[in-house]
Design goal:
The protein has 17 helices and seven strands. It has about 425 residues and is of the alpha+beta class. The protein has three domains: about 80 residues, Integrase, DNA-binding domain (Double Stranded RNA Binding Domain, 2-Layer Sandwich); about 90 residues, Orthogonal Bundle (DNA polymerase, domain 1), CATH 1.10.150; about 200 residues, Orthogonal Bundle (hpI Integrase, Chain A).
């Protein structure tokens, strides 16, 4: 006889457990402590098995019957309901563990040895601020192209078009890592090619050679009232044309004053290759002045407030802004300025300046001896570049290559 809801409600606990059958192997198991549990008894390949269908009244009589019929369908197809349930539970657990955020963090940890420390931190910060807030909680295998597009378009809506492009690129890298590790079958970002708004990538703001006299005059007058170490940082960026992150992260043990070389370790370089910066006598002088101020710290340019950390990445940018060069010059702009001016005014070949800029080697042969490539010529070039800037600062005008060669012959430069 089949059960009724009234019979289930009125089932009182007894001294020992007892069963109320509903047919088809399903029964309500009434326990001495008052719990009432739905059970289903069935046979699978001749072996008797038992599974739970939930507790009453949380699972009603009607719901329990639906679960019983679902289990019978599985049995008819040759599937063990107990094994199917365990697999479903395992897949759900796997989905909860394999969210986009968890896989992205795993990818980041696996890959970060290739990057500089600052880049690794910045990348994780951008993921956290943008993609994790939108799709971080979702199981990675459930994420569709529209989910990703919606997330990156929110970045676009802020006018951050380059950041949106990079976010999509990084998301694709996370998915390809998930493919490689067996968490998803394919990368959905492949279907988003051309989905973002096209935009023209702008270069870093940079001065031209003709602007140098005015800039050097403004820097030396210091009407912006910059700290002495900030002025030295700006001068060193101009004289060495390293990246801003490479300068502010410099430590005293990287400098060989006797050899007049600055050896930047690979972990601090964008391309993860060690880099030699020949030091002109002007750079040595500036470093000696700075060492009197900060020689007790590891950092060449420690933070003014927290000297155990290095100078902020925004210090140079704010200095240029206070000097009146907002939108006209950036820390990175000194690299473009040096490249164009050294080639045009000092007559050096592109590949020599390019090597000093520590751009990526074009092939494996270049990479093998890239660290010291053109080193002798670069040493001469860096001293000439420093002398050239000094001559501009003293005379207030740009000197042509012809004029410079003439002066060199006459012993004036």
């Amino acid at each position: 006889m089949k059960l009724t809801d009234t019979a289930c409600k009125n089932a009182k606990p007894k001294e020992k457990p007892y069963k109320l059958s509903d047919g088809g192997g399903m029964f309500l198991h009434v326990m001495p402590h008052g719990a009432r549990l739905w059970r289903l008894k069935y046979r699978y390949f001749g072996k008797e098995k038992l599974i739970s269908l939930g507790g009453y009244p949380q699972t009603s009589l009607q719901e329990a019957r639906i679960k019983r019929e679902s289990a019978k369908i599985l049995l008819k197809d040759g599937t063990d309901p107990s094994s199917a349930r365990k697999e479903k539970k395992r897949q759900k657990l796997l989905s909860n563990e394999n969210t986009f955020e968890s896989i992205a963090c795993e990818w980041h940890e696996h890959t970060k040895a290739r990057w500089t420390e600052n880049y690794a931190k910045d990348l994780l910060h951008r993921l956290n601020e943008d993609m994790f807030k939108e799709i971080g909680h979702m199981p990675i295998r459930d994420i569709t192209p529209p989910d990703i597009l919606c997330a990156v378009r929110k970045i676009e809506s802020r006018g951050a078009y380059e950041m949106a492009r990079r976010a999509l690129q990084t998301t694709g890298q996370v998915f390809r890592f998930a493919v490689a590790t067996g968490r998803v079958a394919s990368d959905p970002t492949r279907d988003l090619k051309g989905a973002l708004k096209p935009f023209k990538k702008s270069h870093f703001a940079a001065l031209e050679a003709k602007d140098l006299p005015e800039f050097l005059n403004t820097l030396n007058k210091n009407e912006a009232r910059l700290y002495p170490q900030t002025i030295r940082a700006v001068k060193l960026l101009m004289l060495t044309f390293v990246r801003t992150s490479e300068l502010i992260g410099a430590k005293w043990d990287e400098f060989d004053f006797e050899a007049k070389e600055w050896n930047i370790p690979p972990e601090r370089m964008k391309m993860r290759n060690p880099h030699i910066v020949p030091l002109s006598s002007q750079v040595i002088e500036i470093l000696n002045e700075q060492k009197e101020l900060t020689g007790q710290w590891d950092w060449v340019f420690p933070n003014q407030v927290r000297p155990k950390s290095h100078m902020s990445n925004n210090t140079v940018l704010m200095a240029l802004r206070r000097m009146g060069y907002q939108g006209r010059m950036t820390g990175h702009g000194f690299r473009a300025l040096a490249m164009s001016t050294i080639k045009e005014k000092l007559g050096y070949r592109h590949e020599i300046v390019d090597r000093q800029l520590a751009h990526a080697p074009r092939n494996k042969v270049d990479a093998a001896y890239d660290r010291a490539k053109f080193l002798d010529e670069r040493k001469v070039m860096m001293q000439e570049w420093a002398n050239y800037l000094d001559s501009i600062a003293s005379e207030g005008k740009v000197i042509s290559l012809t004029e410079r060669r003439k002066r060199t012959k006459e012993g004036l430069c």
